[in-house]
Specification:
Layout (H helix, E strand, L loop, with lengths): L8 E2 L5 E5 L2 E6 L2 E6 L4 E6 L2 E6 L4 H22 L2 E8 L4 E5 L2 E5 L6 E4 L4 E4 L6 E6 L2 H12 L11 E4 L18
Antiparallel strand pairs: 1-6, 2-3, 3-4, 5-6, 7-12, 7-13, 8-9, 9-10, 11-12
């Protein structure tokens, strides 16, 4: 039995959910999302909650049961509250600038990196402190955008420079040992 899949999903007052022919539509104050349900599960609305049930009793149905419940829960939370991921830029002279539909990064390379902002995502880059704030209603898109931006310059272990998630711990290594071997 899936521990996650059998939990009911509470629907907030401002959120509307509609299920039609294997597709779920979620609408709230922040926007609209839709998702195709896997063929192994079905979703039912009762009172002010959504219940996900398995149609089969095999391994893939067990996996899809928890997945479907988690995705629907993420959609409900996204349209009601939204998702925010904050990245921190560490390094002298490293900065980000968001204008329109692109994010320009100066990360110590010989060139600027221009990242096109995907649809459904908003990015803010306040100059001080050097942060990148990524917001959106789709948890997967927000996380993917954050991972792509972080991949331009992951934190290096010697000085700790690079782009990291806010609060991420980067273990530092000792540099080259000073001195030689004595005889």
């Amino acid at each position: 039995m899936s521990l996650i899949g059998k939990k009911p999903i509470h629907i907030p007052d401002k959120v509307k959910i509609k299920i039609e022919s294997g597709k779920i539509f979620v609408e709230g104050p922040k926007g609209k999302l839709d998702w195709n349900l896997p063929s192994e599960v079905e979703a039912q609305i009762s009172d002010s909650s959504v219940i996900v049930k398995r149609l089969k009793e095999d391994k893939t149905a067990f996996a899809m049961h928890g997945l479907a419940r988690a995705c629907i829960n993420n959609m409900v939370k996204g349209v009601s509250e939204g998702y925010i991921i904050t990245l921190e830029i560490v390094g002298v002279g490293y900065r980000a600038q968001a204008d329109g539909k692109k994010l320009t990064l100066n990360l110590g390379f010989s060139h600027q990196i221009v990242y096109p902002i995907p649809d459904g995502i908003t990015i803010k880059a306040p100059p001080k402190p050097a942060y990148i704030i990524i917001e959106g209603i789709d948890k997967a898109r927000v996380g993917q955008a954050a991972a792509e931006i972080r991949a331009f310059f992951e934190p290096e272990p010697y000085k700790g420079r690079g782009i990291r998630y806010l609060g991420e711990f980067v273990r530092k290594k000792a540099g080259k040992a000073v001195g030689g071997t004595e005889k």
